[in-house]
Design brief:
Helices cover about 50% and strands about 5% of the residues. It is mainly α.
Length: about 210
């Protein structure tokens, strides 16, 4: 798995480099700062390769920090279930509808009481590029708290391409694990599920 983590680290570096370049050239528009946790209250899932990496790093945290995060994960799971049930009740709604989920607020269990991520150095790609323009499903999106103006052109990090690479790495991971259903490489898993149970059991189960 170390080889796959190295490839994942290369993708992380590209994301960090893109963020740094935008911050350098458009410092006034990037509003990310310590204490801002807007990106930590969103509905998102992680590909298997990201989940494996996050799970491995979470296990290295002090026991006290892990215990507190697991308690928060219980509430996060409960809130996620309520959201899923609410969306099922909406005619024509889909749990994968980005437009519907974009406005939902769901706290990540890795966010502590000081509004800091306990795994910040190892945060997922989505978290790393949240404060700059990103290309998602062919559309450029940016954080609502940023200063990027509609109608103006800015460099955007291609999340679609990053997701494609995460999918490829996830397929390689599943092959390495001996998982026969490689379609699972497309599934996304909630952070609360990733940190609360055995990784292999989660992969063999259902997403989020």
């Amino acid at each position: 798995m170390d080889r796959l983590f190295e490839k994942y680290a290369a993708l992380v570096l590209r994301a960090d480099t893109a963020f740094g370049n935008v911050l350098r050239d458009h410092a006034g528009q990037v509003r990310c700062k310590a204490g801002c946790s807007d990106c930590c209250h969103a509905v998102f899932g992680l590909f298997p390769i990201e989940a494996a990496f996050l799970k491995e790093r979470f296990a290295r945290l002090p026991r006290k920090e892990r215990r507190a995060a697991l308690q928060r994960a219980v509430k996060s799971d409960r809130d996620l279930l309520k959201l899923q049930e609410r969306m099922k009740a909406i005619p024509g709604a889909s749990q994968t509808d980005v437009q519907s989920l974009a406005t939902e607020r769901l706290r990540c269990p890795l966010l502590n009481e000081d509004q800091a991520c306990i795994l910040y150095p190892h945060r997922p790609i989505t978290c790393r590029v949240y404060g700059i323009p990103t290309l998602i499903q062919g559309q450029v999106r940016s954080c609502g708290k940023s200063g990027f103006e509609k109608g103006r052109s800015y460099p955007a990090f291609n999340l679609d391409a990053a997701y494609a690479e995460l999918h490829r790495l996830s397929r390689d991971l599943l092959v390495q694990m001996g998982v026969r259903d490689l379609n699972k490489a497309s599934l996304l898993y909630a952070v609360s599920r990733i940190i609360t149970g055995p990784f292999r059991e989660m992969i063999n189960g259902d997403p989020e």
